[in-house]
Structure formats: structure tokens, C-alpha cells
Amino acid sequence: MAEGSGKPLAAVSMEVDGEGMPRLRFPDPFNVAAYFTDRHLHEGRGSKVAIRTLDREVTYAEFVESANRFGNVLKDLGVGRGERVLMVVKDCPEFLCLFWGAIKAGLVPVPLNALLRAKDYEFIIHDSACAALVYSPEYASEIETALASLRPQAVLRMTGGGQALDALAKEASPLLETVPAHAGDDCYWLYTSGTTGRPKGVVHAHGDIVATCLNYTVDTLGAREDDVIFSVPRLYFAFGMGIANTGPLWLGATVVLDDRRPTPQTVAEVFRRFHPTIFAAVPTFYLMMLAAELLTKSDVIGLRRSISGGEATPPELQRRWLELTGVPITEGIGSTEAAHIYIASRIDDIRNGATGKPVPGYRVRIVDDVGRDVPDDKPGRLLLKGQSIMKRYWNDPEKTAAALVDGWLDTGDTYRRDRDGYYFYCGRSDDMLKVGGRWVSPFEIESTLLEHPSVLEAAVVGRPDEAGLVKAEAWVVLRNPADASDQTGEEIRAFCKNKLAPYKYPRWVVFVDELPKTATGKIQRFKLRAGQQA
Question: Which among 266, 292, 207 is positioned nearest to 53, based on CA atoms?
């Protein structure tokens, strides 16, 4: 496609709704892929580097051409408009080309967690009724086992010759006409992690992506076209997708992709080679980076934004990262159902321990068990309304009705708001502790534990005492595992008792080598609770 060719795209505009909230107005028809591919050619970015990896660079012109070829391959194989294309693809340029090429061709890409097992893939293949599945060769074992009992009409390895997507793309046309769509049409899916049961297909519309980019990436984060962006969370998660896919490709920025398993060593290498200006990770990974002591001030000299999500950022982590980099962590919380981040702090408005304030375009409420708004400084369930909220759970009207009530999404998180309008994360609703008749946030205790010089990581759950009353139990990873002893446990309990209200300090301290986590780095407290009975 020649740079600047074709008809310029109609603009997305902003208006204020009847409740005084900013709301996006989309042209009609509206296929969002054109705004992430062809728009960059109209605006003269064809020769700019869109994607950097350890061994190559991809310009915007090359990215658009590959997206067109991938979309044409899927169409030529008979994948029809609105049909699902499952993606089990590592973090590489082809992931982005496939995602946007599918949308441009009128198909629905469904990125999947690349760390699932065959039985999970088998369930999703059946549940999604997908027409195609594309996978990186690294995941062949689990994928091909899943395909033994159920096979979509089109199955493609990403690379490898023969019926591989890269080989077929070489013969496909580099031109692809954008299939007309509407802002509210199905665009892409993500599957939930399935920690509370079978994973659920979350259906998002074309307009959802633009809402996250304008409201969070541009307005709240302050990202720019000249940024170099790197995300530890992978592209197949909502957090990673917003930071390393939709955000930079909306701006016309440059994204760094590394297909290796993220470790402090690999991330330090990325900093030294590519000098990212925006960096994203979950709190546990920030702690790992600091513990490894691999980064120096000269390595992070270009950094201007550090983003954390998934769980709350402990104040001690904030202090240590700021000391190393000079850049505070801007926290945010989002979800698969919301597509990206909906409460966040800004670089010039960070309150210690707070997630921040609602991102423009979102309304939030904190309610009690019967749905009544709670007063400031009282914890409750967080409800959310905004333009990026999912349309529905695929093929599950009952769970959709439970999650979406009168246009409000029940996030499953417990929050409190202070009198200045800052929101403080208290934990997942299922993780909250009721001690002595009072609600206690596990995060508050965990943050205190991390202030102890011997503690590297910590997680807190409830445990009944001899009388059957719930008290806090701390599971702790020490900086030096050899220090684990009854004496160290007593020192940690005393440290917490001195800093917390008496009913909050952990009655028990259990030392472990590592904490169970999801693939995104969130602590799986339910596994710790189960371990109490093991």
C-alpha cells in the first residue's frame, strides 16, 4: 500500500453526556483496525519504526503490509466475517499483524494465554466455536494435543513452512480493503483467567479500544508519539494489550517486544539496548527487579513513566523504585471486562498507597452488600461504568446478567475512597478478612510486611484460631531463605504489631520459597487458603 494513499479516515470526536461525563462519538461505518494501520500511512509514519525486537525492526509500512497479508490469508482459507480466530502466539511482531489484520478483514481475533494446558485449549476451542487457530511453534505440544479431539477449519502454525501463516502470507496480496463495521460491533475477545471456574469469553466492541487509548494512554498516562514502550505483562492479557499493542499503535509510538520469558536479567538487557521511556510491570516483578540489583541509574536514564497494575503497589516498593529511577510508579487497576485501566494515578498526582482517581470517561461507585453507596473511608464493592466495558460474556447470559446490572460492571474488587476522592485498593472481594467483626484488607498487612528488611514478598489470608475466629496469617518469602526461623517469625509479628492496629497483625508467619501467582503475576491467595488444609 502506497504511503498516504486511500481516503482519509473520519475523526473520532468527544462530547459530554447527560451525566457530565466525556463520551466518544464514532463515525459510521467504523472499523477500528483502519485507525491502527492505514491511518499511520495517511499521517506519514510509514518509515518510522513501529516495533523493535532483539533482532529486527518493523516499520509502520511493513506492519501494515503484513497485517493486510495475514488478513487475506485468513479470508482465502474461508474464515468468514465475524468468525473467531484463536491466537496462541508469543510476543512478536506477527502477533500485532495478525490481531489487526483479522479485525481489518472483519474477523474476531481471540488472543489466548500461551501458558494454558491442552484441556484448557480444548475447552476454549469448543466454547468459542472458532473457525481458525494460529499458534507459535513453541506451544505445539499443548495445542496439538487439544486439536486431537476437536479441530477448527483452519489451523496454522505461525512459522515453519508448508501450511504456516508466514509462508502463505508471502503469496497473499499486500492490499486489504477494510471491511465495514460499526463501533458497537463485536471486535475481539479475551478469555478470563478462570480462577473461579471455567474461563469466560469476554466480548469487546470496536469502540472499546479507542476509549482505552484516549482516556487512559493519552489523557491519564500522558504517553506520546516519541515514546519507546516496553511491557512485562504479555500481549494476550488486557494489561499488556493496552500497554504494548493498542496504546503505542494508536499514538504512532514504538513498542519493544521480547518473546523470552521475562526475568530480571532479560528486562535489564531490554533497558540497556532499547532505553524504554515507558515501562510496565506488576508489583511482584518490580520487587524481583529491585532484589536482583541489575539496573543502575544509567540504565534507566530515559525512563519517564513506570506503570504498575494487577495488584496494589506497596508504599515501600514505590519508595525503592523512585530511589533507583527517579520516576514514581503510576498505579492503575483494570480488568479483562473493562479492556484496560479505569482507575489510575497521574505522574503529577500520586498519593501514597492509593490507586488514584477514575480515568476520564469512567464512573465508579462503592457499594455495600445490598447495593447502597457507602460513605467515604468505608470499604465496599467497586462498580464501574464506561465505554470500554464488555458487551457480554460469550454464550453465558446468566453470568453476563450477574456481572452487568443496570449498565454497571461489578468488578469483584473491594475499594475505599477517601475524602479527597482517591481510591484505595483493599483486595479482591473474596480475599477480604473479617477480624473481630471489622473488615481488614490483606494488602494493608502485606504492605507493612514489605517494610521489614528481611521480607522480599508477602501474602496474607484468613485463618481460624483455636476458637474458630478468623485472624491474619502471613505467607512470607525472605530475602535470605536461610534466615527462616521461629525467631525471625516472631520479629516480623512484633514489627507488624507495632505498626498496625492490634487486631490486624498476623498471628502466624509461614515461610515459603515462592508464592503462587497467576501468569500475570497476581498472587493466588486462594491457593494459600487451600494449603492450610493440606
Answer: 266
Between CA 388 and CA 105 the distance in angstroms is 22
Measured CA to CA, the distance from residue 23 to residue 16 in angstroms comes to 6
- Assigned C-alpha cell, 113: 494465554
For residue 431, give the DSSP letter: G
Fold of 13-17+28-180: Rossmann fold (3.40.50)
Tell me the angle at which helices 118-128 and 140-147 cross, rounded to the nearest 10 degrees: 50
Domains 13-17+28-180 and 219-366+419-424 share a fold: yes
Domain locations in the chain? 13-17+28-180, 219-366+419-424, 432-531
Burial 104-130 (b: 16+ CB within 10 A, else e): bbbbbbbbbbbebebebbbbbbebbeb
Q: Which CATH architecture has domain 432-531?
A: 2-Layer Sandwich (3.30)
> Domain 219-366+419-424 adopts which CATH fold?
Rossmann fold (3.40.50)
Task: Per residue of the chain (534 residues), give pLDDT as tens.
Answer: 334 456 789 999 999 888 888 899 999 999 999 999 999 999 999 999 999 999 999 999 999 999 999 999 999 999 999 999 999 999 999 999 999 999 999 999 999 999 888 999 999 999 999 999 999 999 999 999 999 988 999 999 999 866 899 999 999 999 999 999 999 999 999 998 754 457 899 999 999 999 999 999 999 999 999 999 999 999 999 999 999 999 999 999 999 999 999 999 999 999 999 999 999 998 889 989 999 999 999 999 999 999 998 778 888 899 999 999 999 999 999 999 999 999 999 999 999 889 999 999 999 999 998 999 999 999 999 999 999 999 999 999 999 999 999 999 999 889 999 999 999 988 777 788 878 667 788 888 999 999 999 999 999 999 988 877 789 999 999 999 999 999 999 999 999 999 998 889 999 999 999 999 877 677 888 888 877 755
Grid cell for residue 528 = 494459600
